[in-house]
Automatic annotation (TrEMBL):
PANTHER family per UniProt: MARINER MOS1 TRANSPOSASE-LIKE PROTEIN
Signal sequence, renumbered to the chain: none
Domain Mos1 transposase HTH intervals: 19-58
Protein name: Mos1 transposase HTH domain-containing protein
InterPro entries in the record: Mos1_HTH, Transposase-MT_Hybrid
Amino acid sequence: MMRQLETYSNVEVRGTVRFFGAKRFTSTEIHSRISAVYGPHAMSRPATVKWCQQFEDGRTDLTDAKRQGRPTTVSTSDMVQRVEDIILSNGRVSVAHTA
């Protein structure tokens, strides 16, 4: 009987997908094996299908692609003062206007 791993990385799971995909397992079989070893929340079925397709299309990188994240915020004393000045000059100013 297999034991479930308690700790793992996304890269490790993707490597498993790539390995079983190279051995011509179906995405359903791969997802079933991943769930048995890493647990049911390691990778969703749709994500397994997506990664199988990407590896079949020639992808070799296991890391996630860079994406835009949360916008950069600036909270310098100068910026805080500028926002305070805008709000004090017009109390009905919108948040969108101050941004």
